[in-house]
Amino acid sequence: MRFPFHYSTLLLPLVMACSTPDQPSLPPGASADAASIVDAEALRQQALAFFHPLPEVVEHPAGPDTPEKVALGYKLFLDPQLSEDGTISCNSCHKLDHYGVDNSPTSIGVRGQHGGRNSPTVFNAALHNMQFWDGRATDVEQQAGMPMLNPVEMAIPSEAFIVKRLKTVPDYPTLFKVAFPADKDPLNFANICEAIGAFERTLLTPSRFDDFLKGNTTALTPAETAGLSTFLEVGCTNCHTGTAVGGTMLQKFGVHQDFRQWTGSAASDEGRKQVSGAEADRDLFKVPALRNVTKTAPYFHDGRVAQLDSAIRIMATVQLGKELTDPQLNDLKTFLEVLTGAPPKTAATSGPSL
Questions:
Q1: Which residues are CB-contacts of 190 (< 8 A; sequence separation ≥ 6)?
Q2: Catalytic: 270?
Q3: Domain total for the chain?
Q4: Which CATH number is 253's domain given?
Q5: Would residue 171 count as lying in a domain?
Q6: For the stretch 214-243, what's the b/e string if a residue is b when 16 or more beta carbons lie within 10 angstroms of its beta carbon?
Q7: Residue 5 Cα to chain centre, angstroms
Q8: What is the pLDDT of residue 345?
Q9: DSSP alpha helices (H): ranges in the chain?
Q10: Confidence of residue 7 (pLDDT cuts 50, 70, 90)
């Protein structure tokens, strides 16, 4: 089915509730008295040592993505023909209308098979310096191809198989030629992954935290700045840093205690070790990004923890060796809520298509 579509639609600026330091927009409960502004500015400077505001776009190292490439990636992301039996799309596990997740402990692939790990959000994922819980992919382009070939997820038997299939689908040959005009044979597996990656690079979710980092010291309420202060003081930034507030490193899960006794996780999943085979990599997992974390339950690599309160307490115990007070827990939850941003317009599954 074809719908009217303009490539420029996908390049509309992402929804942001921005305000400038010159004309601040005060959220409910915010105080603009001089002392609070000075304190907030000091906290902002401290935060900038660990975090960065979201960029307007996540640039591809090889050069800017075109509207045509992004539009093609959007179409591919929603297309179940990328799975062997035509039942599973990228969107099946990374639902664009559910903050890029399916809110299940583990996702269902072809023939009702369950994957072994929780599906992380694709929102802001292009900002990470590795993909998957074990960091086995370097970027969203490389990540895009792996589920297609995974026998549990999408079960495409080979790269040649999906290329041959898509060449028989109306529109795809032409769309690939338009998106990759310099390629003699543009409909190939690498370009399938490139197009999906180009689309995922548009999935940014700016929030009031970005306004704060950019200089609007009244963008957060006093309760939210207290939450940020607690986040810094408790030591969460030992792992959760960078633009996405995570996604920058592998870290041992269970620094102070075995996490399994707290989460009920299976002993068989040893994280990065399953990729490298190195004993030193046992229980190393990618540090998840915390943007939109209030929307992406359940938590951890196997989705064993359903409630954010529990996830926060477990992390404090097994990673930091600390027992949080109730006020500290509430502070941290308040800050994490600030990291929820507006879904980008490019994530509208009922909107633009080809």
A1: none
A2: no
A3: 2
A4: 1.10.760.10
A5: yes
A6: bebbbbbbeebbbbbbbbbebebbebbbbb
A7: 26
A8: 87
A9: 34-47, 67-77, 90-93, 140-149, 159-167, 172-179, 189-200, 208-213, 222-234, 260-263, 273-276, 308-315, 326-338
A10: very low
| Single residue among 145, 176, 204 that ends a domain in this structure | 204
Whether 287 has a pLDDT exceeding 70, the answer reads: yes
Same domain, 215 and 297: yes
pLDDT at position 27: 52
Structure-token pair, residue 228: 């940020």
Decide: 71 and 5 in contact? Cβ < 8 Å: yes
Mean pLDDT of the chain: 90
What residue numbers bound the domain in which 284 lies? 40-56+205-338
| Res 320: pLDDT | 98
Looking at the fold, whether 167 and 266 belong to one and the same domain comes out as no
Query: What is the secondary structure of 227-282 as a DSSP string?
Result: HHHHHHHHTGGGT--TTTTS-S-EEES-SSS-THHHH---TT--BTHHHH--GGGT
Residue ending a domain, among 204, 228, 244, is 204
- The distance of Cα 152 from the centroid of its chain, to the nearest Å, equals 22
Residue among 68, 153, 194, 200 flagged as catalytic: 153
Same structural domain for residues 217 and 236?
A: yes
pTM metric for this prediction: 0.88
Which residue is associated with the tokens 């840093």?
241
Among all chains, which residue has been given the structure tokens 């992406």?
Answer: 296
pLDDT digits (tens, 9 = 90+) for 39-65: 999 999 999 999 999 999 899 988 889
Q: Percentage of the chain with pLDDT > 90?
A: 83
